[in-house]
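Practice problem: predict the structure.
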Amino acid sequence: MSDDSSSPVVTDQAQASDGVRQQDAEAGTLKPPPASFLLLVSTIGTQAMAAMGQLDDSEGSPTAIRLEFAKSYIDMLGILEEKTKGNLTSQESQVLSGWLYRLRMIYVSVSSRK
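Answer:
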């Protein structure tokens, strides 16, 4: 994955991961980020990235490539785009389109190597 910090995918991932890292100062436990459309898109997109071997596991090794799962996650985002058309903010629409474009391009690249 390129390190284009202006990309909606990268920006949304950073926002989502910042929310996950919020800690309750008194209890010292992690708190989940508030539910949002952007977090939903980011969560599904991240699962697709992992299924295409684009993320490292907890030991620093690339995750196993499971294209059938990646396709399923990408299809879910496509359905989400179709069903929410006309009901999203400009930012939500751009982030969703950005995820779909990038995931589809990675899918084509990874599947052509197999």
